[in-house]
UniProtKB/TrEMBL annotation:
GO terms for biological process: DNA-templated transcription initiation. The keyword Transcription regulation applies. SUPFAM superfamilies: Sigma2 domain of RNA polymerase sigma factors, Sigma3 and sigma4 domains of RNA polymerase sigma factors. Keywords: Sigma factor, Transcription, Transcription regulation. One of its GO terms (molecular function) is DNA binding. It comes from Pseudomonas putida. This is RNA polymerase sigma factor.
């Protein structure tokens, strides 16, 4: 087990020829962690932790996103033109992860505010809360992946309850196109439902 200075909550774990970046015992298995990634992590993990901490105000959240940043790089390896290029790329990934983190926080806070208005008898258990919050995050992520007009049409139909004609007027397309947009959105919903059912079964 090898620890790198500057990132006290993050370690490199080696076992059975597999490696993982793991803050606070959260392990992500990685088939191969090559020399270039070791060097990148060793050179910039401390800087990246500070970069994220200044934005998030939480060392724990910053450490989590440091891990997520390097996992992203593992999935999409690339060559860098010097240290400046390395830090620029790390910062770009980290900023995107911060945006996702803040959106998840706002979504969870909005749900908790609504939950607080419900009678105590209707309050979900801690286990149910965890499932509901994760489902909300998955639904939000699915909506973010939809093209803009598809997402707009879907929300106008599902949240505002508008008819095709009214949605078409809002979006600026024909009713026929609105039907195509909604069909596309429902396909994504069906895929997400199947994925969530699989997770819940496990």
């Amino acid at each position: 087990m090898q620890y790198f200075s500057g990132a006290p909550n993050i370690e490199i774990i080696s076992h059975s020829h597999q490696y993982a970046l793991a803050p606070d015992a959260a392990v992500v298995s990685i088939p191969e962690l090559n020399t270039s990634l070791h060097s990148l992590y060793h050179s910039h993990s401390r800087w990246l932790l500070g970069f994220l901490y200044r934005r998030l105000g939480s060392r724990c959240d910053a450490a989590d996103l440091v891990q997520d940043t390097f996992v992203r790089i593992l999935k999409r390896p690339r060559q860098f033109d010097g240290e400046r290029g390395e830090r620029s790329y790390l910062a770009t990934i980290a900023r995107g992860l911060c945006v996702d983190h803040w959106r998840r926080q706002k979504l969870e806070q909005a749900w908790l505010q609504q939950l607080a208005l419900q009678p105590e008898a209707l309050q979900p258990s801690p286990e149910q809360r965890a499932i509901i919050v994760e489902t909300l995050h998955e639904v939000d992520a699915m909506l973010q992946r939809l093209p803009g007009k598809v997402r707009q049409a879907f929300l106008l139909a599902q949240i505002d309850g508008l008819a095709y004609r009214d949605i078409a007027a809002h979006v600026g397309v024909s009713e026929r196109m609105i039907k195509k947009y909604l069909a596309q959105a429902f396909v994504h919903c069906a895929i997400l439902e199947a994925e969530l059912d699989g997770l819940l079964v496990e």
